[in-house]
Amino acid sequence: MQHTPLRLAPFTSLLALAIACAPAAPPAEETASGTHHDLLQLFEEFRVFQEPAIVDGVPDYTAEAMEAQRQGLEDYKRRLQAIDISDWTVSDQIDHHLVRAEMNGLDFHHRVTRPWSRDPAFYLMSQGGAGPAMSGFRSLFRLEPPFEEAELAEYRTTLQALPKIYDQARSNLTEAVPDLGTIAIWAAPREARIYDEIAEQLAGHHPDLIADAEAARDAVLAFGDWVEENKPSWSGAAGIGKENYDWWLRNVHLSPYGWEESRMIVEQEYNRLVTFLALEEHRNRDLPPFEIADTPRKYADSLHQALRYVVDFLRDGEVMTVPDWVDPTDYSDPDEPPEPLPSDTSIDHKAREREILPGETHEYIGHMLDDQRRQRDDRPIRGADRRFNMEWMRMEGWAVALEELTMQAGVLDERPRRGREVEYLMNISHMSLALPDLAMHANLITFDESRALCAVLMSKGWSQPDERMVWYEMESNLRFPGFHTGVVVGKAHFMKLFRERAMQLGDQFVLRDFIDEFLAGGIIPISLIRWEMTGYDDEIRFLTGEDNVPNRVFDPALQLADRL
Fold this sequence. Notes:
The chain is mostly helical. It is built from 23 helices and 2 strands. The chain has a two-stranded antiparallel ribbon. It is globular.
């Protein structure tokens, strides 16, 4: 298997299979009896309820359909609130909080983001697509011919539905804002090229589908032209504002850190990393320049060697338990030909061609193994794919923390010394993406200004405003609030838990046990994992409103007083 970047995994976790129609809302008077089984049944019903109806092969995101869904959501929220969890175990209460946060996510989409009426890129498959119902359409980008008979029929139906999606989109986008239109204008031609590639793939086995692929391409291009034509008449800011940002982080992501606290965390981390990079460069000032892996073979060899090295380091160094099922060839197979080097070198590639290990530790250990653990997690609520990016801080916080923690634990000690500079540069890149996220959603800067700010904040000139990766990361920030802020804040939250658990256990603290216990918690908000691991419920009380003392969770003296 060729090495496949996992950067889009957080988007795919938002998706579920399309279904024929959404169920009717439950009766308002219906309440749950209060068992965990009742919660599970409610969760399963709510997952189905979230799906839009499919009308003539097209997900229904019309104003009428979305208003009906918004009203039905209130009944689900009432049913959940009626469940008394006061006598439940912490583990079962965590499931309740996960369902509550997911309902909050749908509520926020209706109250604030309304992507079906504000965001033209909502209807572009390559940009994350139109919510849960679009996973079937995105299969066009993954499946390769030849197809079996049933698969062929589904593929044809999906292709033929695409022009209808863009017809509906024109009617739905009654609140479209200019910056979100800019993203769709940029993305539409790129998506159109994908349909050209699909047409080429179909030529050898299913030439009768070529016309449908070309019609889909033409529909995407026409939609992009429509956005460009209408964008001058649109108005309004794309950012959600600080107050909404706070609500989103605290009620959907279950993070104790709102906009202001997140800004402080990101700025302090940025200061630290730039300082440490300068010190590292001073220390290495007499060393030769980096050796660049500038051919496909050099790059592939460095990747395969790094994967084996880091797995052995984690296992033999007792950093974490490495399960028997871990196999680096799942990620990149040395027996397959090396992939071509990218034509446009991003920050990630600039880093990896100098020292590949931190970045691939992030992607393989941090993400791919996370995903493989999730596939083995049979807990029906905790082990489910999260929606509304609820897993983002946990996933990225862990992966980004892993880069620097393993470096400090010695993983780079036997490798070229200047590799430590690469790790600091990679972390600085996260700051260069997070600060524009915060500024855009506070409506302090526009989308175009966010790309320029990203370039200014990144060391060594490793970012340029018009780079494809910068476009991708900034549009992700704008369309998915907290996207890169969550990367940095998630790492800070993990480090806080690390400190708390080490202090709690003292001489009994064992690194491998801590990491294993953290990962066993699942891919859920860190506040919930922390509660289960430490017994500290101050963050949960703060997030649920049980503790009304302002900023209590951020005051160490009050925390200490509680525990004494």
